[in-house]
Specification:
The complex is a heterodimer of chains A (about 425) and B (about 100). Chain A has about 425 residues and is of the alpha/beta class. Chain A is about 30% helix and about 25% strand. Chain A is built from 10 helices and 18 strands. The radius of gyration of chain A is 21 Å and the shape is globular. Chain B has about 100 residues and is of the alpha+beta class. Chain B is globular and about 40 Å long. Chain B has helices spanning about 35-45, 90-99, and strands at about 5, 10-15, 20-25, 55-60, 65-75, 80-85. In chain B, about 15% of the residues lie in helices and about 35% in strands. In chain B, the strands form 2 sheets. In chain B, strands 3-4-5-6 form a 4-stranded antiparallel sheet, with helices on one face. A two-stranded antiparallel ribbon of chain B has the order 1-2. Classes of the chains: A alpha/beta (about 425), B alpha+beta (about 100). The interface of A and B includes residues 252 and 306 of A.
Chain lengths: ~425, ~100
């Protein structure tokens, strides 16, 4: 693997870019690993990277049924923020943003993290009260978030319609300036490259069909499309399909999988300087560096594994976007898709040990997993390596649904995930 | 857009008339105070989250307003059948044979 720097870029440029080495090899499985990670998205690859880098465990395989980063890592709207209400969430997401800030340097790979700011619009009195509460809670936790008047919102995001008679009037907004976006594929690629350089095997097009257990109940390994692979520890990071995988180890999780849809427009010149989220009408928008408007909506109402979702939801989202940003009402959309997101009852994630010795799970990210990629991967690696949670993910156990110690971001209202 | 058959109205109508109401055939405990924490967890939070035929509840919200049950394949989103609340759970092998 060649490190990227000014000299290597220049040398390869003048030699016609023919001498670049591969970023990571297409590995075939060995008979046994110390750790197997199920799912080669950002979360799984990141966990393998931190296991290798910070915990000295390099005999690792990351096994993926499709292609690397082809699940929710490649299907989200790339929004990064940490303005969550509760202390536990604020710590976890802010840890993530801390890691995002240095990630390109850390990985020697440009993940294009852009602190362009996330503006969450308030359309009614409830929104105003709720966001004000969030801003105060965030500031107590050292998370930046501040209130903007409608005129300040307009100054920050000129395409915004703040007319008082608008269908969705803007009464103000909560701005997190440290928040922003990143290049979604680059995160998976960067972690894959970093992990592979430390000896991690990345095995694609190889579905994990079952988790096998020893007679004493502990984890034995995984059955895959390429045969049985023995492992001392298994970490599952399979997003919407986590409950399907975990059920084979007799672990039942409080998860439901929903399609979450997004769409992009034709590319246009830079017109949209930040990310705007409108939780009340469930529409999120930013502009990618390629120029496409990236638009996200809420989940479909029914559970599904179809990676498609229904058109009524898209219609609702696009209608709201056109009301809030009339400038876009003649934009043409290029494509839309769905990802399958695993949603917990309290809308907070699970990064946890399980009742099965040697089996760990990182799931339940619902509609907000991308922003958490580095933080989730970092704390999941710690949990696997030390067989106990990092203080940051300690509250995010699966036992909380039995003890009642929920992290109830769902009830915190006006928090889009 | 899903087309859903309401077993009360006996009409097949667009998804927009209906609201989804989660997994079906979850029985509330007759003596709640005897339930253990594990049983409450199971009742409140643990769901089958099936990849394939899923027993679920729907409500004909903008129609008769009544709840009914359905079997839908969560991979294809195709409905195998819908039936009235209180009716027994249909035999899955029979439904798939018919499909």
């Amino acid at each position: 693997m060649t490190r990227f720097n000014a000299l290597s870029l220049l040398t390869n440029a003048v030699t016609g870019n023919r001498n670049w080495t591969e970023q990571w090899p297409d590995s075939q499985p060995k008979a046994e690993y110390d750790v197997i990670i199920v799912g080669a998205g950002g979360h799984g690859l990141g966990a393998a990277y931190y296991l290798a880098k910070e915990h000295g465990i390099t005999n690792i395989a990351v096994i993926e049924k499709g292609w690397l980063g082809g699940g929710n890592t490649g299907r989200n709207t790339t929004i990064i923020r940490s303005n969550y209400l509760y202390d536990e969430s604020a710590r976890l997401y802010d840890h993530s943003v801390d890691l995002w800030e240095g990630l390109s340097q850390e990985l020697n790979y440009n993940v294009m993290y852009s602190r362009r700011g996330v503006l969450m619009l308030a359309h009614n009195v409830h929104d105003v009260q709720s966001f004000t509460r969030h801003i105060h809670a965030n500031r107590l936790n050292g998370v930046d978030n501040r209130w903007l008047t409608p005129a300040e919102c307009k100054a920050y995001c000129p395409p915004l319609n703040i007319a008082p008679d608008a269908r969705h009037p803007v009464l103000g907004g909560a701005l997190q300036e440290r928040a922003g976006t990143a290049r979604h594929d680059a995160v998976a690629w960067g972690y894959a490259r970093g992990a592979a350089a430390r000896g991690v095997d990345i095995i694609q097009n190889c579905p994990v069909t079952a988790i096998r257990r020893n007679p004493d109940g502990s984890v034995a390994g995984v059955e895959t499309g390429k045969g049985f692979i023995r492992a001392k520890k298994v970490g599952v990071s399979a997003a919407g399909h986590t409950s399907v995988v975990m059920q084979t180890a007799d672990v039942r999780l409080p998860l439901e999988s929903y399609p979450l849809q997004a769409l992009v427009s034709e590319p246009v010149k830079p017109v949209f300087p930040c990310v705007v989220m409108s939780n009340t009408v469930h529409a999120y928008i930013s502009q990618s560096d390629k120029g496409e408007l990236v638009i996200g909506s809420g989940t479909d109402q029914y559970t599904s594994y179809s990676q498609r979702g229904g058109l009524p939801l898209i219609e609702h989202t696009v209608a709201a976007i056109c009301e809030i940003f009339p400038i876009f009402n003649r934009m043409r959309m290029l494509r839309k898709w769905g990802g399958i997101v695993d949603v917990t009852p309290d809308r907070s994630a699970i990064i946890s040990k399980t009742p099965v010795a040697g089996l760990y799970v990182n799931c339940g990210w619902g509609t907000g997993g991308f922003k958490a990629t580095p933080g989730a991967a970092h704390t999941f690696a710690w949990t696997i390596a030390k067989d106990e949670p990092h203080p940051i993910n300690a509250p995010f156990t699966m036992e909380r649904f039995r003890t009642g110690r929920l992290i109830d971001e769902a009830a915190a209202a006006a928090v889009a995930h | 857009m899903l087309l859903i058959h309401c077993p009360y109205c006996d009409e097949t109508l667009p998804e927009a008339e209906f609201t989804y109401a989660g997994q079906a055939h979850i029985v509330r405990a007759r003596t709640p105070s005897d339930q253990t924490d594990a049983e409450w967890e199971e009742f409140l939070f643990i769901r089958e989250n099936v990849r394939g035929p899923h027993f679920e509840r729907w409500r004909h919200f903008h129609g008769c307003g009544r709840y009914f049950n359905a079997v839908r394949d969560t991979v294809s989103d195709r409905f195998l059948t819908t039936y009235k609340a209180g009716e027994p759970r249909p035999d899955l092998s029979e439904l798939e044979g018919r499909a």
